[in-house]
Design a protein that fits this description.
Layout lengths: L16 E13 L3 E8 L2 E8 L4 H7 L6 E10 L14 E12 L17 H6 L1 H4 L3 H23 L3 E2 L17 E3 L7 E3 L5 H9 L4 E9 L11 E10 L3 H19 L4 E2 L6 E3 H8 L13 E2 L1 H4 L5 H8 L3 E7 L8 H13 L6 E6 L2 E3 L8 H11 L6 E7 L1 H18 L2 H4 L3 E2 L1 E5 L4 E3 L5 E3 L14 H4 L8 E6 L2 E8 L4 H10 L4 H14 L7 E6 L1 H8 L30 H6 L7
Parallel strand pairs: 3-5, 6-9, 11-18, 12-19
Antiparallel strand pairs: 1-2, 1-4, 2-3, 4-5, 7-8, 9-10, 10-24, 13-14, 14-17, 15-16, 15-17, 19-22, 20-21, 22-23, 23-24
The protein binds aspartic acid (ASP).
Aspartic acid binds next to strand 23 and strand 24.
Length: about 600
């Protein structure tokens, strides 16, 4: 009989002879007896070899951690004092009668057991196949599989077809740099790895597939951050004859299902998910992906500050600037002069110039501005912020947009310092952010699409394409979880003339439009259904569900922070013959 280690149970297997295969998790040599904890993917069982077993005993003495072996033996009850209540198989053990060593193992570069310190990331990534033997990693990879499996059934139930799209494609602009693949058969020409299957899924709608999804790999050649990888996985989906409401409701239902099944210790903060317009998100949180767990809505104190006798502030206000702020509840518990200096320093790194605050004490206030503020002003701020004794209102004066962004940075820093993040670590706060602007300015001040150029403008705003493109709102929606954008989508343009017009507004020349998007405009001449979709990221969701800091923790074989695969040693130089065949010359 060959049961899985995890399925060996009493009474079924008691007295039976079983064969089990796996790795030596630990070996304890007690002289007369050798105990082996044998591990497979799902569990551990204890194997015993007795000194009287001659050759078998000699073989067992050779065993070391992580040897891969087969054991045949009889399942027996453990002596009462040897019962391990922490193991599912803790009441039984296997008395070995046969032992085969499939392969030996060198001493591992790090320990695998939970009680050991987590090894450094570099060594973990170099030996990822060993790192993945750690229980914590196995649990994460299993969770990943379970979540994806759930998503697949969810989509299937809703009549979506899973359709693969190619990996070697033509560039599709989604705002990131693309990975290029040189073509050997067409020297000097390149394929591009998809940033997402955006255009292909839209073309599937033109094909009449109506409802498509894919667990899609996406590639973006971006500078790396904690929650980014050169390749990542999304649930990519698209539907015809749909609406924003239909898509967001379906996705919300999917997330609720995931939370219910897979969020172990975490609790959902709000159901249904709050919906914020882009403008609300920006004015209340200075951020289009607000972390609703930590709150701290931004308040506007500009009116009140008109009465404050400070030249600097009056000069800011007279130029159309603002004084806005956030309240740190019971900030007095952690705030000090020294912390103030540190916060100032931190804001400076983000381009800030000043920080104002009023701390409400039992016996008055503490504030660098106290000399300039009347009783009336102090009371008005308190009232407006609904501050209590012990609370601190932090304020920044300056140009509106800059002030909002700085307050967003400050809010996160306050949440860190005050221990707020720690308090809310078991909460899941989803929200939708909708009505994004269609266009924005990039770092060079040029017009770009806020989502991608296939996003539909709101019908009532189409007329602004010529006169005021930055005022146009779009039918785009993002889903945010705990301050992380975990997915985004939109209703798409399905009218070829409007699509062309948007490309023109983005300052593409006619030749560029033809070269980059000719295929989609051509397809749009053949009966295009109205359509829309979304792409929830799977890695970031898993990162939050597992409370890990990076998507590398939930990916089997990730790249490191400088986009290298340390295990494979990729990227790597290629033999010059192979490079030449591509029609490529490497510059020294
Ligand atoms: N293609 C978009 C993305 O990857 C999502 C979408 O609009 O469906 O972000």
């Amino acid at each position: 009989m060959q049961p899985r280690i995890s399925s060996i149970k009493t009474p079924e297997h008691l007295s039976q002879t079983v064969t089990v295969k796996g790795w030596v998790d630990r070996r304890r040599d007690h002289g007369q007896l050798i105990f082996i904890d044998l591990r497979d993917r799902d569990g551990i069982v204890q194997v015993v070899v007795n000194a009287e077993q001659g050759e078998l005993y000699e073989e067992a003495k050779k065993l070391r951690d992580e040897y891969c072996i087969r054991v045949t033996g009889q399942v027996v009850k453990r002596e009462a004092d040897l019962i391990n209540p922490n193991l599912p198989s803790g009441t039984i053990e296997i008395i070995a009668s046969e032992l085969e060593i499939y392969s030996t193992s060198k001493v591992l570069p790090f320990q695998l057991h939970e009680e050991d310190d987590t090894p450094g990331e570099e060594i973990r990534l170099q030996y990822r196949y060993l790192d993945l033997r750690r229980k914590e990693m196995q649990d994460r990879i299993k969770l990943r599989y379970d979540v994806i499996d759930y998503i697949r059934s969810f989509m299937k139930e809703r009549n979506y077809w899973e359709i693969e799209t190619p990996i070697l494609i033509k560039g599709t602009p989604e705002g990131s740099r693309e990975y290029l693949v040189p073509s050997r058969l067409h020297p000097g020409q390149f394929f591009v790895l998809p940033q997402s299957p955006q255009q292909l899924k839209q073309l599937l709608m033109v094909s009449g597939m109506e409802k498509y999804f894919q667990i899609a790999r996406c590639f973006r050649d971006e500078d790396q951050r904690g929650d980014r990888q050169p390749e990542f996985t999304q649930l990519d989906l698209e539907a015809s004859f749909t609406s924003q409401k239909e898509i967001t409701s379906m996705i919300e239902e999917m997330y609720l299902g995931i939370v219910k099944r897979f969020a172990k210790e975490q609790e959902l903060l709000a159901d249904p998910f709050p919906v914020l317009t882009y403008e609300e998100a920006m004015s209340n949180y200075g951020n289009d992906k607000p972390d609703l767990r930590i709150g701290m809505k931004i308040g506007d104190y500009s009116e009140i500050f008109k009465q404050v006798d400070s030249n600097i502030i009056q000069s800011i206000l007279s130029k159309g600037g603002v004084v806005k702020g956030i309240k740190a509840t019971q900030g007095a518990n952690w705030f000090s002069r020294k912390v103030f200096d540190q916060l100032m320093e931190y804001l400076k790194q983000h381009g800030g110039q000043g920080l104002l605050y009023v701390q409400y004490n039992e016996d008055g206030i503490s504030s660098p501005l106290s000399k300039f503020m009347s009783e009336e002003v102090i009371r008005s701020i308190k009232q407006s912020a609904q501050a209590e004794t012990g609370d601190i209102v932090f304020m920044i004066a300056g140009e509106n947009q800059v002030t909002l962004e700085l307050l967003n940075v400050l809010r996160q820093e306050i949440a860190r310092r005050s221990g707020l993040y720690k308090q809310v670590e078991n909460q899941l706060a989803f929200c939708w952010v909708v009505d994004f602007p269609l266009f924005e300015k990039n770092a060079e001040g040029e017009i770009t699409a806020s989502h991608h150029p296939f996003t539909a403008p709101k019908k009532e705003d189409i007329a602004l394409l010529d006169s005021d493109p930055f005022a146009i709102k779009s039918d785009a929606y993002d889903i945010v979880l705990n301050g992380v954008e975990i997915g985004g989508g939109s209703i798409r343009i399905h009218d070829k003339d409007l699509q062309r017009k948007v490309f023109q507004t983005l300052n593409f020349t006619e030749a560029e439009i033809e070269a980059k998007f000719g295929h989609i405009l051509k397809a749009f001449e053949y009966g295009v259904p109205p359509h829309g979709g979304i792409a929830p990221g799977i890695d970031r969701l898993l990162m939050i569900l597992t409370k890990t800091e990076s998507i590398r923790e939930v990916t089997a074989f990730p790249k490191n922070q400088s986009a290298k695969d340390l295990m494979l040693g990729a990227p790597s130089a290629m033999p010059s013959k192979q490079v030449r065949e591509m029609g490529i010359q490497i510059l020294e």
